[in-house]
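Re: the 110-residue chain
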Amino acid sequence: MTTSTAETSAQAQLDQLAEALGEMATALHRVDTGDVYCKLNCGEIESIVAVLRLAGRGPAATFVLHEHAVGDDDPDDVHAELGEQLSARTRAGQACPECDFHHHHEHYRA
């Protein structure tokens, strides 16, 4: 089977996209300043998480979701219960079992 120029070009673009998503995931996974992800709304976070998961970057997706959940202080938020559970683990000195990170709820409130 012969590959057309268009197919080769499309594959090259997909490869570039995968590489860019990998770089984005690495960068997002390093941002733990305590005030970035909580400023995004749930829909924005869910979009970022979906893209990261599609790119095969599950740990980065989980980290971003958890940082958002811990930092969001709206009790009616979709992720409020998750945030409370993660904060309780951190207060107990336990890392998150899914992303091995201590989510510090307190530094979001300063």
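The chain has four helices and no strands.
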